[in-house]
Write a structure and sequence with these properties.
Length: 64
């Protein structure tokens, strides 16, 4: 069981934490931790998460 954590930093310097905690026994990634710096839209984060889901083939087990 692994925890996937995403940190989004907005222009207001407030950090919103999105925790995607699911049973990921077959997931090759141990810890996914990345920051999206101020000025970058959260849409890129969504695209990045989606790409990771497709790559790991565990997309159905994650809820954004």
């Amino acid at each position: 069981m692994q925890d996937v954590s995403c940190t989004i930093r907005h222009k207001s310097n407030k950090a919103n934490l999105v925790n995607l905690s699911r049973t990921a026994k077959r997931l090759n990634l141990f810890i996914i931790c990345y920051h999206i710096k101020a000025g970058v839209k959260s849409r890129i984060l969504s695209l990045y998460i989606d790409a990771l889901m497709q790559r790991s083939n565990m997309r159905k087990n994650f809820v954004a």
